[in-house]
Amino acid sequence: MNEWLSKLGAVGWGVWGHSLSTAPYLFFLASASSVLYFSIHRYEQGRFWPHLKASNWSTIGFGRGQGYTMNVPWNQVGMRDADYIAAFLYLLLPVALEFQPQLVLVAAGFDALQGDPKGEMAATPAGFAQLTHLLMGLAGGKLILSLEGGYNLRSLAEGVSASLHTLLGDPCPTLESPGAPCPSAQASLSCALEALEPFWEVLVRSAETLEEDFLEEENVEKEAEGPWQPPALPIPTWPVLQARTGLVYDQRMMGHYNLWDKYANRVRGEVSPTMTSTGQDSTTTRQRRSRHNPHSPPHDSSVTSKRGVKKGALLHSSPSLAELKKKGRMKKLSQAAEQDLVVGLKELDVNLEAKTLSGTGLVFDEQLNEFHCLWDDSFPEGPERLHAIKEQLIQEGLLDRCVSFQARFAEKEELMLVHSLEYIDLMETTQYMNEGELRILADTYDSVYLHPNSYTCACLASGSVLRLVDAVLGNEIRNGMAIIRPPGHHAQHSLMDGYCMFNHVAVAARYAQKKHAIQRVLIVDWDVHHGHGTQFTFDQDPSLLFAFNSMSWTPLHVSASKKDTPVFMPQRVFRIMRRLEELGLAGRCLTLPARPATDAELLTCHSAEYVGRLRATAKMKTRELHREGSSFDSIYICPDTFACAQLATGAACRLVEAVLAGEVLNGTAVVRPPGHHAERDAACGFCFFNSVAVAARHAQAVSGHALRILIVDWDVHHGNGTQHIFEQDSSVLYISLHRYDHGTFFPMGDEGASSQIGRATGTGFTVNVAWNGPRVGDADYLAAWHRLVLPIAYEFNPELVLVSAGFDAARGDPLGGCQVSPEGYAHLTHLLMGLANGRIILILEGGYNLTSISESMAACTRSLLGDPPPLLTLSRPPLSGALASITETIQVHRRYWRSLRAMKVEDKEGPSSSKSIPKKLTQPANRGSAVGMTAPDGNILDADAGKATSASSMEVATPDQAKSETAVVELSQDQTSEAPTGEATADQTPSEAATGGATLDQTIVESATVGATPGQTTSEEAVGGAAVIQTPPALCTDNQTPPASPAQGATAQIAPSKLTENLRTLDLNSEAQEAPESQMAEEEGLLGEAARGQDREDSVLIQSFGDHAHADQVMFYAVTPLPWCPHLVAVRPIPESGLDVTQPCQDCGTLQENWLCLSCYQVHCGRYVSAHMLQHHEVSGHPLVLSYVDLSTWCYNCEAYVHHQALLDVKNIAHQNKFGENMPHSH
User: Where does the UBP-type domain start and stop, copy by copy (predicted)?
Assistant: First the structure.
């Protein structure tokens, strides 16, 4: 492998999904997985251009490149923002974080926007801003968008503008009622997850068996009847801010300390209350790190033995937080151990302000408008597209905010990284052709026009993207956008396609690998059309599947003889502020003065009696304070406690005012004491006033209405106080991720269990993710974010986000025992910033390791300031116990949040009552899977041949069909008599019933392509005896088994005789006409041969297509051939005389349907002529025969079609003799 070959990531989000049809074998020389390709596109079961089966979810790459192609096909129009976001959260982001790209390239088509005449989707510019924001968390923010399609000038311009705003760091606009993904999107996404799960650790679900889901059909919110009508296209707006991030801190909050902790007293004496946070000598602080409390008792090992107490045990025997502290549970790290932690934290790139890149590059060249269609002025791909974009960018002042780069021409050597020299030379000659010659050449391609300037502009477009690659990887800019034409993602190795001449994104990926030694690139294609050119460029990129390091990070442990740590020390906030100032982060924030909370503000969450009780502590003597503190759980009180708690709460309220007033976009409140344990009338767990709860109520009071507020609590302890305050309020969504340990972790009891979901009108608005053990880390929290937190949050659509930002789940914390890194916290923050128009406030809660809490808060502050999250290396996949906790919470909340129904859960009964299809064996798509499609007029859609011919009449299924065409499924005996055709049954979901009446009880089968004619292009699959049929509508339900992974060695070996026993006539249109008997006789012959004489009435599979039902009927048979069989040793060398496919049967002389014995090379007729080949097999025992009709190979002993390397020579010679040319892609 060339050293420069590395890993790239690509994303596509356009409507035109897979359209790269001739380059599936371009990059087979790579020896390590280097490019991850993701495409989300309109498919409609193959009815939408480019009409390729390779655009379906079942295509996941080939050879060692399996798993590195991800397709999310939309099978209906009108898909909305929620559908696209769900695909990113559930699939793209988790896989991308495991893949760890170093560069992200986006084939940014905007034809999925509402109003586009080609895409017919309903995404909004704000939705694409969200997608861009999510991608900015990858690859250290190294992200380049390359313009592809988009043909509604207004929506195109606004979509480009919205994405560019996001690249520049502006907040994402609020989505207009995003809701949850629709059932069709959920089906597509679920099937894609099943296909890819064997290849990516992060997609693995919990293996634990959960209690039966009590979700009943009548409790599920029904989808609205009739077609969905999209609302008017919203116009995104961006606020004008005084500063981006606000910061609230007041050193007076250090006045609260433990009177009975001599260490705390000493610290308080060393840090003068009048000293500013900028005047601290760092040497003094470093010296303090090694000081221990000499009075701490030895560790009591009996405390640990109580960790495994199961739910329902006597919880009163569990220690309180204060008792744990007294018994030495909270250990201070030794100086050496803490130094090790500091060394580990240095991997986080937050130390040098100079390393923070700024600026968004933009390439926009008027020369790109110097070509158009000479013979059709109405052609949608025209110069007016770029004119509309330019006007929009000027109107919004975005051009001046970007770093402008001069476009350059791509060199031939650069284009040859993807395209053949012959093809490039041919394109170069178009500069000298006249209009007639250009039109003749363009007509040889699909959806292409040529102009004398087409070649020049295409070279300039590719060069523009390469210029941005140099700038981003050369650290000139952070990210960039290339506003170019013509588009590129359909272009293939030696083929123009779909307006595209050169594949800009593919060239850029290979260029980044060669010149900049980039190892991993993610390509995202969100154009509404599938980027089949890009997919085929990389789908055979041989890969060694990315594996997690088996060495997981282990938290530092200290022996019991070490001294106790001062758990709740005043210097926590001081150290955080000092670190923010060292990194220059505090200077980048707008510092806001803290103020005490008013009684009116406190009384929104606390009782007057409780407030008065705390106020009275300011005048108490030491003994009275001790007695008062002991009346609460894990509380100490000093004379300044009330003032500090009042100031901490008021600081949070001040920050809320600044955010809602538009002074700042977001903010951080570095405050103490914490608040999330505080109840309405009781202090608890170091907390007195519930700062985040009071801030939420204050936000609603300031806004004048019940503002929708999301509270995310990532403190390692459950926020029992916050939960209780809002448990009956549907305007506040509370999500907590915390250690629970079956009720034995503070605050103990079942309040933090996943079963706690709120009460009354607040039911479903309390969400608890309860970790039942230590060592939970980045992979686990991100899995919760992708699978649970963000789907619910986007559906809730908050107007403000508050974070109870405790950092005691950070690695090295003496209380939490977890392993979240500063980098991990940065990513969690970044992902939340896409919500609520960017209005997010972090309010400090717990965290008791001074180094990790300072670095973690600094990382979060960087994200709030708009810096890209640092690269995050996941040392392991999510823990099985963590996945079980996430799954348990999903199970509980699926009935309340439709967005959670997109994720499959291992339960006994899925969210739908429809029956699943019992499957004996399944097999994912591979090179032996069915790909070709024979239409009535003789045209073939063949992904491997690379050219989609005559798709005008091609209709291949119903909109909501989602199950793989490549799976071989056998119906059980009792199903064969069920489900009449032509009408919906009770087992159908609403989306299925709308598709024409096929039921879930119908089978999915594949068999051999019949009767390939000399005029047709025969692919490997056609030669191997496999062709596409369209499956009946069958949603991928929770109870269906995922496709078996080739890595798992699963092979479907279902004999056609058994397969056809359960087949029945399937008419998907009640008005369908019967196919001509002549057609049936010939086509049934092959299936009869495979079935060894099965009655033809049992083997007929009829499918009609919509409006063509009366005129043209299509009959298809398909089967997935075996990739190997034990009888291949019977194949003998080809005779020197060669083969003659016109040779008659040696017994009866017929020329119809003859077969060739691959052991003795005798020719005999098939079953439905005189069955002489069957007789020959029975006499000679020779197992393998080759069909002279379609060149498929049948094994009598295995009763299955077979396609293997050992058969390619004889197939190729037969192909040459039959068609006069070599078999395409014969490898």
Answer: 1123-1221
